[in-house]
Structure formats: C-alpha cells, structure tokens
Amino acid sequence: MTGHLPAKEHPPAKEHPPAEEHPSAEGHSAAPGHPPATPITGTTRLYAVLGDPVAQVQSPALMNPLFARLGRDAVLVPVHARPPHLEAVVRGLRRIDNLDGMFVTVPHKAAVRALADRRGPTVDIVGSANVLRREADGGWLAENFDGSGFVTGLVAAGHEPKGTHVALVGTGGAGSAIAAALLAAGVDRLSAYDTDTARLGALVARLDAHWPGRVHALTGPHPRGADIAVNATPLGLRPDDPLPFPPDSLRPGGVVADIVMKPRETRLLREAAALGHPVHHGIHMLEGQLDAYQAFFGLA
Fold it and tell me: For 113-143, how does the pLDDT look when each residue is reduced to its tens digit (9 = 90+)?
C-alpha cells in the first residue's frame, strides 16, 4: 500500500554465533539449512500475534526465522486474548516501548480496527485489519494484508483468479479482505455467503461501491458453478467442525481453497481432494504476505 509513514528504526542487530553454537528456543541446535534462532536479550524488539484461540497460529514459525535471516534482533510471540479483554490487551501492548507491531488473527480482525490511531485504505474498504505498526510519532497504523496474501498465494500455486467466478463462504475479518483482493485481481463474479446476513449485506454494499455489479450475496453456502470456492470461516480448526460448504456442489475441476492453516489438511480439503478437486492450503495465504510484512515493518 502507499502512503505509509516510514517504519521506526530498530537498534542494530547483534552478531550471531555459528549455528552449531547457537541453541534454538527448545534448547537444541538449529537444524541444518535453517538460520539460528535469534537470542532474546535486553535489546530485543517485540512483536505479538493476538488471537482466540492462538495455539494454531503459524506466523511465529514464519516470522521468527525471517528475523534471523535478516539479522534482526526481534521475536514474535503468541498472545491469547479473549474478545472481552481485547481492548485492554491492545492498549496495554501499545504502552510497551520495545513492542513494534501486532499481528491479529481470528476473531479480532474487525474489532482491532477501532483500536488503531490510523487506518490504511484497505482497512476502510474491508472493515478489518490483520496487522498494526507503531509509527515514529508513537501512534499506531492498522493495515490488512490477508487479501493480497491470499491472491499472491493463489497465483503462485497456479490458480489465476482473473476472469473467474469465485464463491466465498465467510465474510469476517479475513473473508472481507480476500473478497476485495479477488475483485481487485479481476474476478468476473464474486458470490459471497455468511450466516451473519447483516455483515454480509454491509460488505456487499461496500464492495459494490468500488466494483459495481461484480459481487453478489448467496442465500446459502452452495458454491454451484464456481471456478474457485474459498472457505474463509474458522470451520475446520476442530476435527468435529461441520463442512463450511459441500465440495460436491462445485463444477468438475473447481479449485477448493481453505484459509485454515492448522490442521493443514482440513476435512474440507480432504473431501474435496477425494472428489478430484484441486485443493489450496491455508498456509499459502500467510506465505504470500511475507514480502508485504517486510515492507510494512521496514525489515528489508
């Protein structure tokens, strides 16, 4: 995105010992081919990822090796914040002077938007944020890279969305960002469904203002005729979750994508693959955001 203020400067990174001398967080040497874990010291810069639940988050496993590769004296840690406590948690974290950023996952992406001092243009369009950055003046800027990361991952996997019909189930924080990014990427038709009809209607209205005539509300989770069907709900995090939509309603060859990252093989993806559908895993959405995170936080 353009128009961001420059990221805050960080203290120079420390020299790291060779991998065989540098234990990981578990007390073991770093695996061959991987950067050593960054030692946590009094100069370490902090980042937090907020969610409820939080055990499933994959961002620490991607960001902490990235910090090490870049020689950054920084660490990303999970913070379990329940919805009634979110405002208190965020306001407390904002007062930690060596905390430079927050990542946000389910179910806080819509609520956290109001806790930032400034919002990027994507946040105002989609109504949610998945990252916050401390600015040079001490204020906090919210942005959302879920949608761009999803599209980047989709294209990298060979599933070009331009000119297609996409069905999206779930219009919460991540789903709303994905909807906007897919429209920006040139999908011909976006059909969206959510059990929260008021939230669905509000999103369709916001998107129609930018991409008139291309987004439509579904009356049920039935992605018939879609070239790509996306689960943007949390359904699949738990083994006893119901399917977000029936994969057998897709046309032959239709791609089934899930944004759930853990487990990697959700029930939806397993059943879709068994029917012969190409599947797209949730981790690709996060991997597709790494370059954006580097630029947003001034890490490159």
Answer: 999 999 999 998 999 999 999 999 999 999 9
Per-residue pLDDT of 1-60, as tens digits, reads: 333 333 334 444 333 333 333 333 333 334 444 455 668 999 999 999 999 999 999 999
**Which tokens belong to 106?**
């389910």
Q: Which tokens go with 160?
A: 């070009």
With tokens 């001398």, the residue in question is: 21
Give the number of other CB atoms < 10 A from CB of residue 128: 26
Q: Is the pTM of this model over 0.90?
A: no
SS3 209: helix
Sign (positive or negative) of CA dihedral 79, 81, 87, 92: negative
The full DSSP string for 110-137 is TGGGGGSSEE-HHHHHHS--SEEEE-TT
Q: Where are the alpha helices (DSSP H) in the chain?
A: 59-69, 86-94, 121-126, 146-156, 173-184, 197-210, 267-274, 283-287, 290-296
Identity of residue 73: D
d(CA 259, CA 231): 6
- Alpha-carbon span 188 to 183, nearest angstrom: 8
Given the DSSP bridges, would you call strands 140-143 and 131-134 parallel, antiparallel or unpaired?
antiparallel
d(C-alpha 77, C-alpha 114), whole Å: 23
List 8, 109, 162, 262, catalytic entry:
109
CA atoms within 13 A on the CB side of 127: 16
Q: Is 109 a catalytic residue?
A: yes
